[in-house]
Amino acid sequence: MIWKTAWKNVWRNRVRSLVVIASVTIGIFGGVFAVAVMNGAIEQRVDSALNNEISHIHINHPGFRDNYDIHLTIPDLDSVMGQLDETAEVKAVSPRIIISGMANTASKSAGVQIVGIDPSLEKSVVDLHEEIIPGTGDFFETASRYHLAFIGQDLAKQLNIIRYVIDEQTISELRESKIPEATVEKLVPFTGERFHSEEDFEKEVKAVLAPGELEQYGRLIREKAWSFSERTRMTLTFLDGDQVQTGAVFRIAGIFDIKNTVFEMSTVMVKKDVLAGLAGLTENDAHKLIIRLEDMEQAKAVSSLLSKKFPHLEVLGWKEIQPDLALMTDLVQQFYAVFMLIILAALAFGIVNTMLMVVLERTKELGMLTAIGMNKKRVFSMIMLESVFLSLIGGVVGMIVSHVLVLFTSSRGINFSQFEEGFEAMGYTSHIYPEINPGFFITVTILIILTGILSSVYPALKALKLDPAEALRTE
Amino acid sequence: MKILEIKNVHKIYNSSEVQVHAVNGVNLDFEKGEFSAIVGPSGSGKTTLLNMIGGLDSPTEGEIRVDQTNLAGLKSSRLIDFRMRHIGFVFQSYNLIPVLTAKENVEFIMNLQKWNKRERDKRTYELLEAVGLKDRAHSRPSKLSGGQQQRIAVARALASKPKFVLADEPTANLDTKSSENLLNIMEELNREEGITFIFSTHDQRVMKKARRVITLEDGRVISDEWKKKNGSS
Ligand SMILES: Nc1ncnc2c1ncn2[C@@H]1O[C@H](COP(=O)(O)OP(=O)(O)OP(=O)(O)O)[C@@H](O)[C@H]1O
Ligand SMILES: [Mg+2]
Asked: Using 50, 70 and 90 to split pLDDT, how confident is the model at A475?
């Protein structure tokens, strides 16, 4: 009876109840969805970092990371590799030679890390070979009589390896696209022009196009004008083991794009035997072993196991290699908690306020109920139940709405392309696939119910304080 | 048989500035089966007295015994339970729970007392029949007239077979015809089922129906008259 009455009371002031339910729904939805987007971005960043950049565990000479001393290779490499092969959790190992140096083209230069790899082994520890921009080449697959280098998109732009060209073909392709004729006409005067950098190109195009056109078609125009000449030359120079300046001319094997400016700018991959030859190292030298595990969750356990096995080497799990990522994944959990707490607090205030109004409005009725024999426990439960119903409906609707939307967007992703540059500068892609784990969902649901219950305690206590004789006298 | 004794009861309200002696030394006894009216000008203490009889308020001095039980001796939770089991209430307004139907309102207390469904339904329909509203069992209060609502309230008050029913100005919000109708029903229940009613009123016509009229003034009983049985006074 109390349940039934409480339930019916919820619908007594339909508009007010719906407003409360809607605000709970929106609060939950906003919270869950925002968390899902952040979570998705971070998971993607971690995935991308692990899959493209660092893999799971690194092993190197304990002093190597201090200043990348070329002499600090891994002693007794064969035996270390052999023992790693016997470790069940290890899926693959790739040795790398790493040397700091400079990359130069005719017009530009940049400081880089030259990474010598064995392409077939490297493919088994990271997926960088899958991130090639179509049409720019491949991951050391085509045989060549030249030395080859695999570089990132941002470095390619910096070194003017990627440039922007508007020629007859660009114009005709633009004409065939959905860009209006009038807009294309504005670009015709550029025919035959080459731009040395992305900035130059954008500045020039911006000068002739209206802001609206730029916003709508800028991306497409940039894509069409994008130009890359295969097998462009690039010189890599560095100091060899004897502190002697050395180097060689390399041709671009392929260009990768992993949406991480720092990594793209700093990494140049070449074949390990080539680099070893130039640096005066042997083919059996390596500065780092990159290890892929069967399961990334084991990184911590396996890395401590390996450090026991190789006490003379430095063994690092991915959380130690990229402490910023580890910090991020840990810190963000606390951030989610605070975020949800704020939403729940707002929810609590809303419910307290509404239920106080309810108690005030029904003073006379509550007085009557106490008079005819409804005891305190029942009055208390009735008021409590009303707000529990309110928060439950709002909570459940909110969870369903957020679940559906997260599900829907997690398969297609959300494109924040307006903020692409900012995202990539931080190593994040702008196309985010929201993601939430079921545990978070369940926790939030429980918290909403608890909030509903807790925030109705005060109004319900107020109802208990009513003196029936007084209450009945009120007008 | 005495079912209610009021011995030297006083009620003093101490509001901020003034002290109000709302009930000032009342002594009254009520027998089972009475049909009595408490009358008097506004502010004479009718509501205060009825509230004390019903255990909604406690006397500053004196004693109220319902069927030998001293209300002052009951602690608050027992008192609520006592009210539920032994005293029926009909108020001037706000008697019913607006979200429940007439039937649900009548059976509310039986529900709290955990009657089984069969007995509950039987009694509820008997009571609705007695107040002439069986056909409106499933209407919400807002769909009933003021008079019908008060009749439902009477049915609800009778649900747990109380020792007596207290009604503080039950007709104050009703028109003449509805007032008369309500009083006739109460009178019939009193005559045929022996239910004890104690009600307060301003209304001369209502007063005339009572067999005993107790007049209050300034918190004191100034007259207590019994009418001759079957007489028109
Ligand atoms: N809670 C209270 N605090 C202070 N004074 C009160 C309180 N309740 C009632 N009174 C006073 O007690 C006196 C008796 O009031 P009561 O309501 O019992 O009169 P009544 O006979 O029922 O009047 P009415 O016919 O207007 O209903 C009045 O003077 C009233 O102002
Ligand atoms: Mg009164």
From this structure: low
Does the distance separating the beta carbons of A373 and B84 come in below 8 Å?
yes
A322: confidence class by pLDDT, cuts 50, 70, 90: confident
Look at residue B232 and tell me whether its pLDDT is greater than 60.
no
Q: Convert the pLDDT of each residue in A191-228 to its tens digit.
A: 888 887 777 888 888 888 888 888 788 878 887 888 87
- Cα(first)–Cα(last) distance of chain B, in Å? 25
Half-sphere exposure of B25 (CA within 13 A, CB side): 1
Q: Judge whether residue A320 has pLDDT over 70.
A: yes
- Provide φ and ψ at B178, rounded to 5°: -65, -40
- Quick one: which atom of ligand 1 is closest to the CA of B169? 27
Q: Which domain holds residue B179?
A: 2-226
Question: How far is B125 from chain A, CA to nearest CA, in Å?
Answer: 18
> CATH number for the domain including B13?
3.40.50.300
Q: Is B233's pLDDT higher than 80?
A: no
d(CA A254, CA A251): 9
- Indicate whether B45 belongs to any domain: yes
In this prediction the pTM is 0.72
pLDDT tens per residue, range B79-101? 999 999 999 999 998 789 999 99
What DSSP character marks residue B72?
A: G
Residue at B233 is within a domain:
no
- Structure-token pair, residue A159: 């070194």
| pLDDT band with cut points at 50, 70 and 90 for residue B230 | low
Helices (H), B87-203: 102-112, 117-130, 146-158, 176-193
Q: List CB contacts (< 8 A) between A8 and chain B.
A: 99-100
Strand arrangement, sheet containing A162-166: A193-195, A162-166, A226-228
pLDDT tens digits, A367-392 = 999 999 999 999 999 999 998 888 88
The Cα–Cα gap between A368 and A120 comes to: 84
Q: Is B42 in the pocket of ligand 1 (CB under 6 A)?
A: yes
Q: What ipTM was predicted for this assembly?
A: 0.92
pLDDT band at B229 (very low <50, low <70, confident <90, very high): low
Residues 6 or more apart whose CB falls under 8 angstroms from that of A257 comprise A131, A132, A133, A152, A153, A264
Degrees, nearest 5: CA angle A177-A184-A162: 75
CB A288 within 8 A of CB A95: yes
Is residue B232 domain-resident? no
**Residues in B lying within 8 Å of A, measured between beta carbons:** 47, 51, 54, 56-57, 77, 80-81, 83-85, 89, 91, 93-95, 97-100, 104, 108-109, 111-112, 156-157, 160
- CB-ligand 1 contact for B142 (6 Å cutoff): no
The residue with tokens 């979200």 is B99
How many whole angstroms separate alpha carbon A246 and alpha carbon A236? 8
DSSP structure string for A98-160: EEEEEEE-SS-EEEEEEEEE-HHHHHHH--GGGGBPTTS--SS-S--SSEEEEEEHHHHHHTT
- Domain tally, chain B: 1
Residue B128 in domain: yes
Would you say the CB of residue B47 lies under 6 angstroms from ligand 1? yes
